[in-house]
Amino acid sequence: MYSKSSLWLIVALALVLATGAGADTFRIELDYMADNSVGGHSHMPTTAELNAVIQMFACQGHTLIIDLSDEIPHHEVLQMDPAQNWNIFGYSGVADSYGALKNEFYDHAGVSGWHYCIFGHQYEWINDAGVRFNSTSSGLAEVSGDDLIVTLGTFIHNGASGGSPFEKASTLAHEFGHNLGLRHCGDMNCRDTEDADWVDQYPLNVASVMSYFYQMVGVRNNLVCQGLAPQFIPFKNIDYSHGSMCSLDENALNEGLGTMMASADWNCDGEIDPGTLTADLNGGSRNHWCGPDLISGVHSVLSDFDEWGAIMDMTKSLEPGKLTNMEVAVCISSEEVSRLTDKVVCPQASLATEACVSTEMRYVRADGSTGGSGDCSNAYNSVSGAVAGAPDGSVIIFEPLVWNAAGQVFQNKAIFISAQSAVLR
Ligand SMILES: [Zn+2]
Ligand SMILES: [Zn+2]
């Protein structure tokens, strides 16, 4: 029999083990709509699609349990509460509502620690003019809540409704990220209207499926395809951000430095200019930094954010009945996805169970990198400093200056992989 004090010790130890190791268990019950009539389609995700998301969590030491539960009737558009704008998750007044379906099919009602996800077709939304319409948004989720939907009904893949395998996996990760408290712009103020002095939802230096810039193309794939990073960056396609990209000050962009991983033509004039310049890298509705409202947009310092360090599952601390009337996040629409590929066509990554990344990305800058563009979390002011203690296979990226190390001179931007053997790439 334990004494009171030793019991407390055990409780405290258990808490340390639960939080200190950073390992957590997350649970989603997933139902999917299927139209079994002739010529119909199913929104059922495949095992490979679910495994890609499970693997994404496993790489961080987390366990994601997905209970692929019921096939449910196909409803074209999940209805919004006629009496309350934006209320989708709390409305159960008609058969084709999220609430009615949850009442009928959710097997974990009242059980803490579970999230309820429906893979459906579309949902009803309302525009700024107060007009309701059938949204083509890829999904909707409570921020820090327990309800989420993946709605790829207008995303056509191989002539069929419901999205590609990559889109299904990536969007599930995205919507679940909202449930875990993540937004579209890291920790920056993310605007949803054109006039607010906030950053837009396409931050190219938040390397995450939460950013519209990456959700449908893949993080690594889009970075490499857009020329913003070399082929061997230690990033995955389906991931939340680790906060390892450098800041970009839109008022003082340096094209030579670019993203710090590769130089970048920020003003889209076809060359890498000297000095600094001003440009809006993610403004307005143009989605790509070379779009039409270049220069004229809002300029701010864009920064990355360690999303993995910030996720929090409120279903563990709040009873299910308390997670109602929550803020919701509306996610990228099929029109926004097509605009994104208007300027630069980057093929979507193919679905894969990706290998985990255990290496680091480190930056070497003359000033050790503080402030403004190129403010990087893993910055060093000497080659030896960056090499010391870097896990084998790490990528070390140099500011384009002359660097001397181990008898080698690196002029211009030099990148080497495998820190301990200093292999120049
Ligand atoms: Zn459908
Ligand atoms: Zn979203």
From TrEMBL:
Residues annotated as domain Peptidase M43 pregnancy-associated plasma-A: 166-210
Keyword Chloroplast: no
UniProt keyword terms in alphabetical order: Signal
The keyword Chloroplast belongs to this UniProt entry's keyword annotation: no
Pfam families linked: Peptidase_M43
GO MF annotation list: metallopeptidase activity
Positions in coiled-coil regions: none
Signal peptide span: 1-23
Protein name, per record: Peptidase M43 pregnancy-associated plasma-A domain-containing protein
Organism: Candidatus Polarisedimenticola svalbardensis
Lineage of origin: Bacteria, Pseudomonadati, Acidobacteriota, Candidatus Polarisedimenticolia, Candidatus Polarisedimenticolales
